[in-house]
C-alpha cells in the first residue's frame, strides 16, 4: 500500500432541480420560485491506497453512494477531480477513459435490480469481456465457468435467468460480472445490506478471499459500521456530504474522536449490551437542501458550543494517519 490507486481532490457533487415551465411562468407573474440545489458531496479529499479496503460509513442520505458512483464513473462530478494511479480521469482521451472504466467496477446494493432479467447469467457475465476484447468468442464459455467457480456458483446454472437464483446467489452473479473484466478497484455500494445475516457472512468472506487472490482494492460503502469493522483497513466517516473522520479501523473503533463517530459506534450491538444503555443519535439527519451552518452535525451534537454553528471545522491530522473535523480538537 505504497501509492494511491484512487485519489479524490476537492470532490463536489451538486444536484439541481431546474424550474419547469409552470414555475417559470409563475415567476413572470411575480412568484419567487428558485431552483433547488442539493450539495450531495462537498469538497472531499481522500486517498485509497493500492491493496487496501477503505470503509465509507454514514447514515442514509449522507452522500456516500453518490461518492461511490462518481468514483465508478456512473455519475459526473460537479467540481474537483478523481485520479486513478495519478491520472486525472477528466483529462484522459475517450480510449483511455474506457480502459480505466474496465479497471474500476461497481457492485450494487440490490442484486436483482442491477441484473438484466431478460439475460441469461452466461451473457450477464460474459458480454463485457467479449465486447471489450478481453477474451475471444470461443473462450467466453470457459471464462464464464472460471469466474462462476471463483465466486462459488455452479457453472451448470449459467443458462438460467436471475429470477431463478436466491438473493445471495444473485449477489455472487453481480460480483462475477464485476470480476469478468479483470478490475483492480471495486466500489461495493451496500453490497451485503439486502442479504440475510448468514448470507452476509459468506459474501464478506468471499470479498476477503477475492482481495487476497486477485490483489483487489475496495471502497466498501455501508451504513452498517459493524460490517465495515470486519472488512476495512481504514474507515472514513461521512456526514451530510463531508468526511468528518478518517482513521485506521482498529484505532477508530477503540477511541473515536469525532462526536458523530462516537454516536455511530454507540449504536453498534455488542455482546455486553446489558452493561450499558442503548442511546440512539438524537434528532434526524437534516435536509441536504438546507444543511445547518458551520459544522453540519452541531444541531445533534451533545458537545456543541458557540463556534460550531458559526465556522466549518477543517479536517486535520490529529495523530499519525488520523484525521478529524471537530472544533474540540483545537
Please describe what this structure looks like:
- The protein is of the alpha/beta class and 330 residues long.
- It has a single domain (4-329), classed as Rossmann fold (3-Layer(aba) Sandwich), CATH 3.40.50.300.
- It is built from 11 helices and 12 strands.
- The chain has helices at 21-28, 64-72, 94-103, 111-114, 121-131, 140-150, 167-179, 197-214, 225-231, 249-254, 259-266; strands at 4-17, 36-49, 53-57, 79-84, 87-88, 104-107, 185-189, 217-222, 234-239, 242-248, 316-319, 322-324.
- The strands form 2 sheets. It has an 8-stranded mixed sheet with strand order 6-7-8-3-9-10-12-11, sandwiched between helices. The protein has a 4-stranded antiparallel sheet with strand order 2-1-4-5, covered by helices on one side.
- Helix 5 (121-131) packs parallel to helix 7 (167-179).
- The mean pLDDT is 90.
Compose a concise summary of this entry.
This protein is 32% helix and 23% strand. The protein has helices at residues 21-28, 64-72, 94-103, 111-114, 121-131, 140-150, 167-179, 197-214, 225-231, 249-254, 259-266; strands at residues 4-17, 36-49, 53-57, 79-84, 87-88, 104-107, 185-189, 217-222, 234-239, 242-248, 316-319, 322-324.
Amino acid at each position: 500500500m505504497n501509492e494511491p490507486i484512487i485519489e479524490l481532490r476537492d470532490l463536489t457533487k451538486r444536484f439541481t432541480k431546474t424550474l419547469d415551465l409552470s414555475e417559470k411562468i409563475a415567476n413572470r407573474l411575480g412568484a419567487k420560485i428558485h431552483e433547488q440545489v442539493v450539495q450531495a458531496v462537498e469538497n472531499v479529499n481522500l486517498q485509497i491506497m493500492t491493496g487496501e479496503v477503505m470503509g465509507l460509513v454514514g447514515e442514509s442520505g449522507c452522500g456516500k453512494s453518490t461518492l461511490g458512483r462518481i468514483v465508478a464513473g456512473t455519475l459526473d462530478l460537479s467540481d474537483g477531480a478523481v485520479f486513478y494511479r495519478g491520472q486525472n480521469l477528466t483529462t484522459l482521451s475517450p480510449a483511455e477513459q474506457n480502459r480505466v472504466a474496465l479497471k474500476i467496477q461497481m457492485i450494487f446494493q440490490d442484486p436483482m435490480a442491477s441484473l438484466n432479467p431478460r439475460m441469461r447469467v452466461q451473457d450477464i457475465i460474459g458480454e463485457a469481456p467479449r465486447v471489450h476484447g478481453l477474451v475471444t468468442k470461443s473462450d467466453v464459455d470457459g471464462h464464464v465457468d472460471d469466474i462462476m467457480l471463483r465466486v462459488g456458483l455452479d457453472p451448470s446454472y449459467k443458462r438460467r435467468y436471475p429470477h431463478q437464483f436466491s438473493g445471495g446467489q444473485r449477489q455472487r452473479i453481480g460480483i462475477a460480472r464485476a470480476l469478468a473484466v479483470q478490475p483492480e478497484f471495486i466500489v461495493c455500494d451496500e453490497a451485503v445490506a439486502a442479504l440475510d445475516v448468514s448470507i452476509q457472512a459468506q459474501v464478506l468472506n468471499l470479498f476477503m478471499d477475492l482481495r487476497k487472490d486477485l490483489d483487489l482494492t475496495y471502497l466498501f460503502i455501508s451504513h452498517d459500521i459493524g460490517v465495515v469493522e470486519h472488512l476495512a483497513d481504514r474507515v472514513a466517516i461521512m456526514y451530510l456530504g463531508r468526511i468528518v473522520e478518517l482513521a485506521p479501523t482498529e484505532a477508530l473503533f477503540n477511541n473515536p474522536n469525532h462526536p458523530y463517530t462516537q454516536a455511530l459506534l454507540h449504536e453498534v450491538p455488542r455482546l455486553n449490551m446489558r452493561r450499558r444503555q442503548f442511546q440512539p443519535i438524537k434528532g434526524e439527519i437534516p435536509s441536504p437542501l438546507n444543511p445547518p451552518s458551520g459544522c453540519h452535525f452541531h444541531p445533534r451534537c451533545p458537545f456543541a458550543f458557540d463556534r460550531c454553528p458559526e465556522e466549518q471545522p477543517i479536517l486535520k491530522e490529529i495523530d499519525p494517519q488520523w484525521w478529524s473535523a471537530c472544533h474540540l480538537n483545537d
